[in-house]
Design brief:
- The protein is 30% helix and 6% strand.
- The protein is built from 4 helices and 2 strands; from the N terminus they run H-E-E-H-H-H.
Length: 132
């Protein structure tokens, strides 16, 4: 039973392919990030998260690290896509709570640019890959 005003589609839906009307422009992703920034199944490693937590102090106040935070600020916004563990920074309990409390200017108040955080993440990840 069809409702009035609704037409049955004559187009065949092929899984994994978008029609021209649904295609969106590709997000601007810095080349250094590569495809890992927008993967549906991003790289995840508990060992790497533990390494960042153990080896580095909080980036904002230099206290011992208790949490790692995924950087989303300058990655493309997509629904249903998790951020790779490659893009994590160490934060103490206090700073992590402040960041998630809704402070949209958390990084700006501390004079830290999100692009610089991504560069830091890349260098730490490269060092970790070279050591293992």
């Amino acid at each position: 039973m069809r409702r009035s005003g609704f037409k049955k589609s004559t187009r065949k839906c092929v899984p994994g392919k978008l029609t021209k009307s649904l295609k969106r422009p590709a997000p601007l992703v810095p080349k250094a990030l590569g495809k890992s920034a927008t993967d549906k199944r991003p790289w995840a490693s508990k060992a790497y998260r533990d390494y960042v937590r153990a080896e580095f102090p909080c980036l904002t106040c230099r206290r011992p690290t208790e949490h790692t935070h995924h950087i989303r600020e300058c990655l493309p916004r997509t629904m249903g896509v998790r951020v790779s563990d490659k893009f994590i920074v160490p934060l103490c309990e206090r700073c992590h709570t402040q960041l998630h409390a809704g402070s949209r200017t958390f990084w700006a108040e501390r004079h830290i640019q999100p692009e610089a955080l991504l560069t830091w993440c890349e260098s730490v990840h490269a060092n970790w890959e070279n050591r293992t």
